C-alpha cells in the first residue's frame, strides 16, 4: 500500500481559493495530513507568495515551502467561465477554502451557501479579516486590536505573523472537526476563522486577569520582571533564555553559575527583584554564552540559547524531535524547513510546489468540465 494512503486525510479533496499566509499555513497542514489540495490562482500572477523573493527557479521560496505537493489551477473567478469551472470543482470536492472579504464571492455568483446546496457534503471554510462589512487589515492591525502587541512590550514591529499563522492553524482544527461531524451526519457545514480573532487566543488569561484585578498579573512572573524568567546578554553579545520558574531549577542554576546567594531572590517582581536582575546580568556578561551553556548542560535546566534564524536551523533538538524536513524545490534541489506540521501524523509530499496553472487542463478534464468551457478558459 502507498504510505500516502494511510494518512488521516487520504482521499479528501480540498479546493483552495484562499490567498497569502493564513491560507498557506492551513493548506500546508492539510497537505501534510494527506489531503489533495487544488489551489485556485489568478491567471495573471497567481498567489502573491509566488512573487515574493528570494525566488528559486522563478517561484518564491515561501510558496515553495507551503505549497509543495499542491496542484495549481488558474481561474479568473470574476468571469463567468472561471466561476462556472469553480462550481464544477466544488460540486465534487470535500472542502473549499476562501479568504475574500465578506460578500465578494456572492457578487461573483459563488456564494458558499449555494455551493453547499449543490454538494451537501461540502465543507466551506472562510478566513476573512473581519466577518462583517468592508473593514480591511493586516497582521499588525489584528495583533494590535487584541492587546497582544502592547503585551509584547517592544518598540519594534513583530517580524512573525502571529495572527496569520494562528488563524491558519485554528481553521485547520475547525475543518477537522467539521470532517468528523460529516462522518456521522453525511452533511457538510461552514466554518469561519476571522484573522481579527486569532490573536485573542494568546490573550485569554490576560483578559481574565484584567477583568478581575484591573491588570494582567501574570506579567509579574512571565513578562521578564523576575530574575528567574527572562533573557540575559552574555560576553559575546549573545542572549541566554533563563526559564527557571520552579524553585528547584532556580536554586540549581544559581549554584551552577557561582551565585548561590541569589537562590532566594529569583521570584520577586519588585525592587529586590530588579536588583537581582542587575546582579545576574552583570555576572553573565563576564563569560560567553557557550561557556555558560557548557557549565549547565549536565544539569538539565530550562536554560537555552536565544537563536537567530540562522542558528535555529542548526538546533539539534528540532531534528531529534522530527521537526525539520527537506522540502523539494522546482529546480530539483531541496530546502530545509520546519515540519511536517503534525509530525506524528503527517509527512512531506515528494512533489515540489506547482508552476502557475500547471494542472489546469488535467484537473478540469478529470472533474468533467465541459471541453468547450476549458477551451474558453
Brief sketch in words of this structure:
The chain is an alpha/beta fold and 377 residues long. It has helices at residues 20-32, 61-66, 80-90, 104-107, 112-118, 139-146, 148-152, 162-185, 204-213, 219-222, 247-256, 271-284, 289-296, 309-312, 316-320, 360-366, 371-376; strands spanning 13-17, 36-41, 55-56, 59-60, 71-74, 95-98, 123-126, 190-192, 229-233, 239-243, 303-305, 324-328, 334-338.
Could you name the key traits of this structure?
elongated; 2 domains; Rossmann fold; 377 residues; alpha/beta
Describe the protein in words.
This protein has 377 residues and is α/β, with parallel strands linked by helices. The chain has 2 domains: 3-202 and 321-376, Rossmann fold (3-Layer(aba) Sandwich); 239-305, no CATH class. The protein has 17 helices and 13 strands. It has helices at 20-32, 61-66, 80-90, 104-107, 112-118, 139-146, 148-152, 162-185, 204-213, 219-222, 247-256, 271-284, 289-296, 309-312, 316-320, 360-366, 371-376, and strands at 13-17, 36-41, 55-56, 59-60, 71-74, 95-98, 123-126, 190-192, 229-233, 239-243, 303-305, 324-328, 334-338. A 6-stranded parallel beta sheet has the order 5-2-1-6-7-8, with helices on both faces. Strand 12 (324-328) and strand 13 (334-338) form a beta hairpin. The longest helix is centred in the middle third of the chain and has 24 residues, at 162-185. The model has no long low-confidence stretch (mean pLDDT 93).
